[in-house]
Design brief:
Blueprint lengths: L15 H6 L1 H17 L2 H15 L3 H50 L2 H5 L3 H43 L1 H7 L3 H38 L1 H6 L3 H38 L2 H13 L5 H38 L21 E9 L9 E9 L3 E6 L5 H7 L7 E6 L2 E2 L5 H7 E4 L10 H6 L7 H6 L3 H5 L18 H13 L5 E5 L7 H14 L4 E5 L11 E6 L2 E6 L1 H7 L1 H18 L1
Parallel strand pairs: 3-8, 3-9, 6-7, 7-8
Antiparallel strand pairs: 1-2, 1-4, 4-5, 9-10
Helix pairs in contact: 2-4, 2-6, 3-4, 3-12, 4-6, 6-7, 6-8, 6-12, 7-11, 8-10, 8-12, 10-12, 11-12, 20-21
């Protein structure tokens, strides 16, 4: 199987560069396009000669020779047409793949705040259907440059050779069709914008309906959502009709206008046949060429409208066409003597808004477990996110004597592992969910998260399919698979946001012991509202009103922080009641 190779494009936001990027293919398109359309005029010419040969009663051998020549000529023309279509389709497929790759890379390279502001349905529509529409417009344009432009020129020159006056007079109607198409292009452009925007909106609410299906069903909102979805689909249908109506339904009108000249051809050409100026074969060849040219004029007029639709899609995907030549540098991080110093950290989202957390200060080092807890909405998860360096922050986060924002994106990904409070599983095997496609041994990490016993009940073991296309897992099983993924590489800093929310207290205690025993080369940041296990962490950051209210060991906070002591004692009592 041939592997598609992507060549970097200079200025991918300029559409001409996509043809320049496929120079050899475009050269083949030009050669076969000129050959096919330039030779196409010979078809009606030799057909006329064959008619004249039959009318004049030429010898059989001459008629047979002319017939064979005509057939061979048609076969050669169609062969060149095949190669022309082949290379145009190859250009379209390559361009489509290149555009999608660049859009994909662009999405991957967007900052997290930028991605948070993106509409999923809008991104999906641009990356799929807008690319298809744009490339289809490029394909049609490339095709019609030859099949319409070159062919019309070839026919027109041949017709001029037959009779200049008839050709000029009969062709006067063709510019009228083109002018009408030009007048309608702005209307088509407006309708196309409305249609593409509505299509993006539909994709967005479809994604939302699937993602929140359980919520809507439990809340009794399915009927309301169905009615809304129906209305939006009807609006999409109406916009699609308006968009396609002018493009498709106007072509017959363009053809009729362009074909009005056939009246002059029949009258003036017929007169020449009667007067002996033309033979029947010449008259037949001329009518065929004019009809073909008028038909192509109608297609050219429609192409003007089609290009407007493609122009809308081009403008929508253009901001996402960036040729990222992303090279992953070697990242030789020292995994010994890891230190973390957070000083006066403040964070707001979006940047410039009121701070969600502020004036946070604490330190940690390799082999320690730092607990972060606090009241509801105190900024615990926000603090964990800010330590990733994915969002802008103020203050200082220093890792191994270097400011976090000064590390590259790749260095941060290799240095810090993060588990959010919502486990995310791929529709893939347990093994691939943990290794993310890398060849690694996961036996120990499965033991670390107490998943080895669960695995024994699954017939396919680590190859068991999970996610949307696999078996249903409990919340605790999902959480532990996601936790195993986070722990697998023993990163310098491991941030765990509420990793034990879906597991029982015995499992929680065992995992805590494993973290302490097997991850001595990592600094672990443990975020949790359940603090009964915080007796086993080294130091604790207690958040209150979005600030660090207290900082110290468990024993120190039990003595010096009334808030911490109350939370801890209430959870101990609640745990005892549960055990009873």
């Amino acid at each position: 199987m041939t592997r598609l190779k992507f060549r970097p494009i200079d200025r991918p936001d300029q559409i001409i560069n996509y043809w320049k990027n496929e120079k050899l293919v475009v050269i083949c398109i030009v050669i076969f396009g000129l050959g096919y359309n330039g030779a196409a005029v010979l078809g009606p010419i030799y057909q006329g000669k064959l008619i004249d040969s039959l009318v004049h009663g030429d010898e059989l051998a001459a008629v047979v020779l002319l017939t064979l020549t005509f057939i061979a000529l048609i076969a050669a023309i169609q062969l060149m047409r095949y190669f022309k279509r082949f290379y145009i389709r190859r250009f379209a497929n390559s361009t489509s793949a290149t555009m999608r790759l660049m859009i994909y890379n662009n999405i991957l390279h967007k900052s997290i705040p930028e991605l948070d502001n993106e509409n999923i349905g809008n991104l999906m529509t641009r990356a799929i259907s807008d690319v298809d529409l744009c490339v289809e417009g490029m394909r049609k344009f490339t095709t019609e440059v030859f099949d319409t432009g070159v062919l019309m020129v070839a026919y027109y020159i041949a017709m001029l050779l037959y009779d200049v006056r008839i050709t000029i007079l009969a062709s006067l109607f063709i510019p009228l069709a083109m002018l009408l198409a030009e007048k309608l292009k702005n209307v088509v452009y407006k309708y196309s914008i409305d249609y593409r925007n509505q299509s993006s909106y539909i994709a967005g609410i479809t994604y939302d309906s699937i993602e929140n299906a359980m919520l809507y069903r439990a809340s009794g909102l399915e009927g309301q959502n169905r009615s809304k979805y129906g209305r939006e689909l009807e609006s999409l249908q109406n916009k699609a009709i308006k968009t396609n109506l002018l493009e498709n339904s106007m072509e017959p009108i363009y053809n009729v206008i362009a074909m009005l000249g056939i009246i002059l051809v029949i009258y003036l050409g017929g007169s020449k046949v009667i007067n002996g100026g033309w033979t029947v074969g010449v008259f037949s060849a001329y009518i065929i060429m004019f009809a073909a040219m008028a038909d192509k004029a109608g297609k050219a007029a429609r192409l003007v409208n089609s290009v407007q639709k493609s122009q809308v899609s081009w403008q929508r995907i253009k901001p996402y066409l960036t040729d990222f030549q992303h090279k992953v540098a070697n990242c030789n991080l020292d995994k010994t003597n890891t230190t973390l110093s957070v000083n006066n950290l403040s964070f707001s989202y979006p940047p410039g808004n009121e701070n969600i957390i502020e004036k946070i200060t604490f330190e940690g080092r390799q082999g320690e477990i730092i607990g972060i807890t606090g009241s509801i909405a105190s900024g615990k998860s926000t603090l964990g996110l800010s330590l990733l360096g994915l969002y802008p922050y103020s203050g200082s986060i220093v890792i191994d004597d270097k400011e976090l924002r000064n590390f590259t994106e790749y260095e941060r990904s290799q240095m810090i592992a993060y588990l959010g409070h919502k486990p995310q599983l791929l529709s893939d095997s347990i093994y691939n969910n943990i290794t993310l496609g890398n060849e690694q041994d996961i036996e120990q990490v499965l033991k670390d998260v107490c998943f080895d016993n669960d695995l024994q009940t699954m017939p396919d073991g680590i190859n068991t399919m999970v996610g949307n296309s696999g078996i249903r897992l409990s919340g605790g099983q999902q959480a532990r698979i996601a936790l195993a993924r986070t722990l697998l590489n023993h990163s310098k800093i491991i941030i765990l946001d509420d990793p034990f929310a879906a597991v029982d207290m015995n499992t929680e205690e065992q995992i805590m012991d494993n973290l302490r025993s097997h991850f001595k080369n990592s600094l672990i940041i443990l975020i949790s509202h359940r603090i009964t296990m915080f007796k086993k962490v080294d130091r604790i950051v207690l958040l209150y009103n979005n600030q660090a209210a207290d900082y110290g060991t468990h024993d120190e906070l039990m003595q010096n922080s009334r808030l911490y002591a109350e939370i801890f004692n209430l959870q101990i009592i609640a745990g005892e009641d549960t055990d009873e």
